Amino acid sequence: MHQKKSITRRDFVKSALAGLGGYMILSDEKPNPSTTELPMKAKIVTRTLGKTGIKLPVVNMGVMNSDNPALVKAALDAGIKLLDTAGNYQRGNNEKLVGSVIKNYPRDSYVIATKVLDRSRDRSTGTFTREATTAGFIQKFEESLSRLGLEYVDILYVHDVVTRSMVLYEPFIKALDQLKKEGKIRFAGVTTHWGEPEVIKAATESKFYDVVLTSYNFKQGHINAVKEAVAEAAKAGIGIIGMKTFAGGFIDEHKTKPVDPKAAIRFVLNDEHVTTVIPGFTTFDQMTLDLSVMEDLEFTENDRKALELGYNSSGGVYCQSCGVCIKQCPKHLPIPEIMRAHMYAYAYKNLWEAKDLFSSLQVNSAMCQDCSECMVKCVQGFDVKKKFSEIATLQALPDHFLV
Amino acid sequence: MQPQRLFAGITAVLITCCGIVIGQEIPKYPKIGEWQPQKKVQVYNPDNLYDYINGASELYLNYQFQQLDVIYYKNRKKQEIVVEVYQHQSPLLAFGIYSQERSPESNYLPFGTESYIDGSNLFMLVGSNYIKIYSYDLGDSVASQLTRFGQTFISFLKVTSPLPRLIAAFPTEYLQPKSEQFVARNFLGYSFFNNGYQAFYHKDEITFRLFIIETDHPETSHQLLRQYLQHIQHPLQDAAAIHYAVNDPYHGEGIVRICSNFIYGGFGLKNREILNGLLDSVQRNICP
After folding, report:
1. What is the ipTM of this complex?
2. Which of A55, A175, B18, B259 could form an S-S bond across to A137 if both were Cys, CB 3.0 to 4.6 Å?
3. Domain spans of chain B, in order of start
């Protein structure tokens, strides 16, 4: 890596010349604008975001991973309208980045969605704790607004909601309602990465939320439950935005088969109830590729093959929390949580977390003894009884054996 | 059950089922004054960081995140301080993610590779570790408590490293404080550039950036530069050219130069005299 080691005589001469203003000699000083063309505007196909009435391109931008203002600008110039950010991305710097770009655009030319994440939550019960307050939520949002340099945002989400109880959490609904009345947000939403069907159904039931940002991809074992909830929500006027479209970027667990991005986007947009997706591209080429989906939105047999739909990897390790199993189980055991505890122990090697969660469920493997054969047919192919039995052994371990 | 058999059984469960070796009973992290670390240290790895910080985890993975330890401290008043230790593959990568998140307006402190207090929280870069210390309702003692925590963790980790050397190559005139970054992937939005350093500058209401890309060999840099020029459809000049005035379709007009195994340049400032002056400074620092 050290330049001194590999520098050549020629390099040395060039460097010395440049150091003396030699760039004027060995340079191509005149820019040649005729050789570089500004990026073409993408073909834009729009859908309407539920009752908000906002017309959006079916592909937009999740800014989350970008450190590049030129990329955000290129996205807007290419016809993208929705920029999705959050107060917790890069500790607020992501919102500052978005703010630095949009200040040069008319306010009605873009749509901003941001999120407030409150970590005051009990993970074992899936509820916010009393530290999650209306005032705290509003304060976090005001900071976001300031970083974005805006007087209002178009969509504000309660970020990372996993249960019905969290969707209906009164202090946050109160905060969102107040912000709407003050004109600081136009629409309210929730985001969900886990337990999507329950969250989406609760958002519909609430009659309060306007938008749901949900994980939606070809690898979800409970995709039918997601689709069903999305359809109900759309019917009720809720705008649906899809995320995690590429499902981590690889088809297989060993990360040898990259996902075909266009096929993955078309899979989601094949559901007419989804208004748009927000891929987190980080290069101009990725952006161009993602936008080119709008040339042809039809989800084809080739796409199906590219995504290896029908492929069953014995369920992997991630329980998608679809909840189908709970109805199948005669004891109505909290199987998604049990599977999650199993994942903590066996996939993540996090015994503390596993035992903590499992103990909070107050179940034991003896509860399965009444059934000679397990009635649960997991949609992901999990051997539920076996996993339950394995994780139940943890309960016997004293805490001090766990790191 | 006899204790030995119980122990053997537990060992078998831990090793055969979970692939985990029995740990120590002693807490890993130190007691800090009246603050006692709770036994339960949450540990996250690249597979489950998502569970803790959701979608923000993707960026951490780009910077070769290895492990996160979350340590909960409590005092006798039941107040809590939470310490998050993000371990990355190298000090440079830890700086990369830290530089994405750091806040220029904050109160910077003279310890660690770099550290600052933002509100009731302390953020530190210490070698390959990016440490975040969150406090709640500590009142007037917040700064002193956080400082004590920070210094204790620096001593505890027993690692140190300076800021990446190329950070010092950016000239300070017009530099926006603490805007220097190391970007681990898709630098400048081009996948072929892979990684690089950038810093943002401000002059007369105009924000512009300088950048430096370091490769392993001068020839690699020349190849990369040729690839870039082809990509933006800029005519290839004499192979000996070391300075290009380009019109990048996304970054606009700018200057790109090469010396030894470095490609460096600037975008966003039309005043060529100033831009070239700044780039001359960069060159003096990287190719003296």
Report:
1. 0.84
2. A175
3. 25-157, 165-286
